[in-house]
Amino acid sequence: MSKAIGPVPYLDLAAEFKELEAEWFDAIRAAGRSGRFIHGPNVSAFEQETARYLGVEHAIGVANGTDALVLVLRAAGLKRGDEIITTPWTFFASAEVIAHIGAVPVFVDIDPDTFNLNPQQVEARITSRTKAILPVHIFGCPANLSDLGEIALRHRLEVIEDCAQAFGASRNGEKVGSAGRAGCFSFYPTKVLGGYGDGGLISTSDKQLATTIRHLCNHGAASPFIHDQVGHNSRLDEIQAALLRIKLRKLDQAIAKRNQVASWYHSRFIESPVVTPSCPFEAEHAYNLYTIRTPDRDPVRAALTDAKIGSSICYPQPLHLQTVFSHLNYQAGSLPVAETAADEVISLPIFPDMAEEQVDRVCQVVLDTIGQ
Ligand SMILES: Cc1ncc(COP(=O)(O)O)c(C=O)c1O
Fold first, then answer.
1. How far apart are CA 272 and CA 288, in angstroms?
2. Looking at the whole model, is its pTM more than 0.90?
3. What gap in Å lies between CA 132 and CA 92, rounded to an integer?
4. What is the pLDDT of residues 10-33, one digit of tens each?
5. Does residue 90's CB lie within 6 angstroms of at least one atom of ligand 1?
6. From residue 267, how far is each of 9, 44, 288 by CA, in Å?
7. Is residue 94 lining ligand 1, measured as CB closer than 6 Å?
């Protein structure tokens, strides 16, 4: 192990900004001079570039990832009383949007290795009210859309992908966001493809769905000042689109670097009781987060904090046990894999320019704490 090298941030957005500053500011200046600030050329170009990158027919920029999900649920015709199967192991927004449209989130336990929705447990929870499955590619690891897709086909359910944490990840050569009816992305700054502010995107190859979404996200207007639905004001900002275009060009390299950091971590932990994140062999992980499991999680976190090393607990409470969903009547023990994960996980620093010495420093503190 290397000598102590000082603090390690959880992620380093300021350093990344410095690298992109000149290029982004040039793009902002050009956008300003064009005088087109809403639905301008950067948004259109970014939509075309992301559609090509993801392998879909349409991409629609929206204000954030939460809106992307709400807009897709509404455009797909999901409504009050419908049941939507999803994972309890995700950021709150994935289930919040289901409640927002008056539908019911039905939580199904996760796979212990990938933290993703476990397809083997989905069918038992399908009822006559079930209308959709909403898998989340958690931490950047693609969910098993082949198995979920087959179940959905058998039961005539929509598949709506929450890709917020997984831009650029793929499974069997298909990018996430291209296999379901639609994919919903977030450009929150900490994401694999992150803006410097809020932003989101919807991917789909369904022309009708894309048209409905374009109306819905622009106040339900089918043409200027003619409204056939009550919609939303949800648009990707021209300034964010200018940045995201620059970052998209560097994305594959950034994901490769994240995978390199993950492989350094794996190699340091391989002989230890630390459980490292696993990725199905047919998938390419985007490593938005690097989340390990250890029964000594709390002492490990305290030691990292003492050593000025960033970390995060994603997630301390699975969604089926959140008080806001207590009316759904899940109990402690209902979804044991997610509940055990909540007691054991800790996410370690990961960002594209993380140095091997920084990984060594993090591992040294973790392994010292668990007595390895
Ligand atoms: C899994 C997941 N879904 C949805 C969202 C919501 O995205 P946003 O913050 O852009 O609304 C996030 C991120 O914040 C997320 O991690």
1. 23
2. yes
3. 18
4. 999 999 999 999 999 999 999 999
5. yes
6. 21, 43, 19
7. yes
Q: Which atom of ligand 1 is nearest to the CA of 199?
A: 10
Which residues does 21 contact at the CB level (< 8 Å), separation at least 6?
none
At 177-191, the pLDDT tens digits run 999 999 999 999 999
What is the average pLDDT across 218-237?
A: 96
Go through the chain and tell me how many residues it has: 372
Taking the CA of residue 66 as reference, the ligand 1 atom at the shortest distance is 11
- pLDDT for the residue 4: 55
Whether 130 and 149 have beta carbons less than 8 Å apart is answered as no
pLDDT tens per residue, range 68-106: 999 999 999 999 999 999 999 999 999 999 999 999 999
Distance 91 CA to ligand 1 centre (A): 6
Average pLDDT score over residue span 295-299: 96
Rounded to 5°, the CA angle 365-366-371 comes to 95
Query: For residue 97, which atom of ligand 1 is closest to its CA?
Result: 4
User: Ligand 1 centroid vs 337 CA: distance in angstroms?
Assistant: 22
pLDDT of residue 281: 84
86 Cβ below 6 A of ligand 1: no
128/106 Cα distance (integer angstroms): 13
| 329/320 Cα distance (integer angstroms) | 8
**Average pLDDT score over residue span 300-309:** 98
- The contacts of residue 88 (CB under 8 Å, 6+ apart) are 95, 107, 108, 109, 110, 318, 319, 320, 321, 335, 338
Q: Which two structure tokens, joined as six digits, stand for 70? A: 């709400």
- Cβ–Cβ under 8 Å, residues 135 and 148: yes
Structural domains of the chain in order of their starting residue, each with its CATH number: 16-109+116-249 (3.40.640.10), 250-369 (3.90.1150.10)
DSSP per-residue string spanning 126-137: --TTEEEEE-B-
Instruction: Flag whether pLDDT at 2 surpasses 50.
Output: no
